[in-house]
Design brief:
By secondary structure, the chain is α/β, with parallel strands linked by helices. Helix content is 36%, strand content 26%. The protein has helices at residues 12-21, 37-47, 55-59, 79-85, 100-113, 127-136, 161-164, 166-182, 197-201, 274-288, 298-317; strands at residues 3-8, 27-33, 50-51, 66-69, 89-92, 117-119, 143-149, 186-194, 210-217, 222-228, 236-243, 246-251, 256-261, 264-269, 321-322. Strand 2 (27-33), helix 2 and strand 3 form a beta-alpha-beta unit. Helix 1 (12-21) crosses helix 10 (274-288), helix 4 (79-85) packs parallel to helix 5 (100-113) and helix 5 packs antiparallel against helix 11. The N and C termini lie far apart (42 Å). Residues 141-243 form the GFO/IDH/MocA-like oxidoreductase domain.
Length: 324
Amino acid sequence: MSIRFGMIGAGGIAQYHVKALTRIQNVRIASVFDINPEQASKVANETGATIATSAEQLLDNKEIDAVLICSPQFARGQLEEIAASRNLHLLVEKPLGLSMEDVIRKGRAIRESGVINSIGYCLRYLDTVQMAKQYLQGKQVHLVQVHRYGTRHSAKWWNQLAMSGGFLVDAVTHQVDLVRYLVSEFNDVYANFGRHVIQQESPDSTIYDGGALSFTLLNGAVGTLTESCVSPYYNGSEIKIFGPDYYLSLSANGMQITIIDENQNVTKTSKMNAYYEQDKRFVEAVVSGTSQHVLCNYEDASKTLAVTLAANQSFIERKSMSLV
């Protein structure tokens, strides 16, 4: 069975998917749309896809089986709902949006349609992350420490809080998702953000330089998260998980795991391509008609978005935000 993809959004993240999908047998990118004609042309030249003149035209294409949505979170509109209503399976990049009301409505429509859906929390598919998940089964966690530091995106929209949600919502969402996936759902979150460096460099920008969050989890653990998008000399991430009889760390965006306990002190580095593993599982799900091997669907991903949006709101209201 051949799976024909339509692609909405052909920018940087989409390029990772193009490379992954073209490696998968019996997959073809059949149509592509991007508001930037040059980006759409690049994908079309690489894959032989036709170029749609609009997202609506692409979704009207009877020759596609699934849609890959890589358009920015502020520009999604009703794309997911329209695709689901036309029985098009959905592979959607994170974050899902900037409004929980909209995302909950879309999640309901997708669930009711019955289409296969997978969201771009690709780190879940790494062998290191699966190793961590297996190790942590049944183990007590009392403390989680998370950080991610890097630099900001050059796109003008990304530097507007109302369009990107900031570094936390757009990028650090991967680390938040892994806390949910590996440890526990969030109970509450309290956040502080600073806006000093970016304000001086780019007065029109509204995103934060960095943030410091404290949180509690439903399993009783407590944790902290720090992040910065103005860190040109150090770029990295780590999730440290502490138990009374072990220590576990996932660093380099989940690519390296360290486990230390009474019986072992081991470090392993993954050689997997997370995008390829994620996209392959999605294709297999579409072919088989069952999503049991998809590790993150739309409704699951909406819970990760809820944590990051609650953190932003916490800073505005200057209080802890409950997630239950």
